[in-house]
Amino acid sequence: MPSLNHRRADAVLTVLRPDGHPLVDTDVVVAQQGHEFLFGNIGFDFIALANAEDDAAEPPAFGGAPASSAAALADLWLDVFNAATLPFYWGRFEPVRGRPDTARLLRAAHWFADRGVVVKGHPLAWHTVCAPWLADLSTDEVADAQDARIRRDVADFAGVIDTWDVINEVVIMPVFDKEPNGLTRLAWDRGRIPTIRLAFDAARQTNPTATLLLNDFDMSTAYECLIEGVLEAGIQVDAIGLQSHMHQGYWGEEKTQRILDRFARFGLPLHLTESTLLSGDLMPAHIEDLNDHQVSSWPSTPEGEARQADEIERHYRTLVGHPAVQAATYWGITDAGAWLGAPAGLVRADGTPKPAYDTLRRLVKDEWWLAPTTLRTSSSGRVPVSGFRGTYSVDGVPFELAHDGEVVVRLEG
């Protein structure tokens, strides 16, 4: 089992009374409030809830439960996850030019932010679910429209969404032939790196403090070569996004570790942006594009649920155990409305948690969590605190445990 010392901090907490003098020889309660590590999940299921819509609302692309079940799911979601990904697929977000779905997505983003959740937008540029009206534009007009879209949306959501998957799956973008779209033409005509530069420049100039990701499903050396070219071109990437949709079977610890080590060499934080593990039959190994696997029914099974729970524990232990990994986003809380209809959720379609949900919650909120603990201050008002890096409180007053060292907290009157 990998060491988790890189996730922990040991601090000496000096507790002051409201008058500024040390609180000496007194019992205080220290409790963890949140993780520094980003345990994420998609937030698609809660867009309708945040907007007080009913089941007649069109579900978002790539997953989303009916609005009627969202309220019950919310408690389960919020009990484990502290980071949400919201959908900005251009073809759904702005199917008619000049009429973006800004208000709905902004309400959803605020719904999460109000609950202390870090929100990410996904994606600003992608060839799939692309705006259909781009097909009628010239390549230069596509570039201008893409630039304008990024600047508009990054500006509109700044302060509530400050993390973005800027551009998605560029390795395959210039040769993607599943559907006609403007982005493939742009990437083919101008090249991958100039297309990436266009997207990153627009986002960076609009929100200089945003966290901007390059994201891909291709874990081959092709993605490594692309990253090398991007960095050599002077494009500032804040984190590398790695997708891990394991519909055809769990990668295993050794393969996962090799992938993490390969991409960690760039010295950038790694975000596992899209992870899935199935609790039913696996997709056949010969399928190259996961979207090509179409079945009428894909149920969760008791055997599959036991396997999923085991694999999710192994997967998250590997991710949290690697010092380069900063975030891990699971792709779906529920089987209801799940991507491809696969039994990849942590909650069954009927709303009951699977063993995988209980397993992940045990890790995040039990094993890797400091429950409320009574400690006694010294004669100088000091008390040692050790735990996973994140936010804490002492007698209800918040503080951060971000590194080893000294922390001073003044109690309220």
TrEMBL record:
Top-rank lineage group of the source organism: Bacteria
GO BP, one annotated term: xylan catabolic process
InterPro entries recorded: GH, GH10, GH10_dom
Organism from which the protein derives: Cellulomonas terrae
Catalysed reactions, semicolon-separated: Endohydrolysis of (1->4)-beta-D-xylosidic linkages in xylans
Positions of the GH10 domain: 67-363
Entry-linked PROSITE patterns: GH10_2
The protein's Enzyme Commission number: 3.2.1.8
SUPFAM superfamilies in the record: (Trans)glycosidases
GO molecular function, one term: endo-1,4-beta-xylanase activity
Signal peptide span: none
Class in the EC hierarchy, top level: hydrolase
Keywords linked to the UniProt accession: Carbohydrate metabolism, Glycosidase, Hydrolase, Polysaccharide degradation, Signal, Xylan degradation
Family of this protein: Belongs to the glycosyl hydrolase 10 (cellulase F) family.
Listed name of the protein: Beta-xylanase
Lineage: Bacteria, Bacillati, Actinomycetota, Actinomycetes, Micrococcales
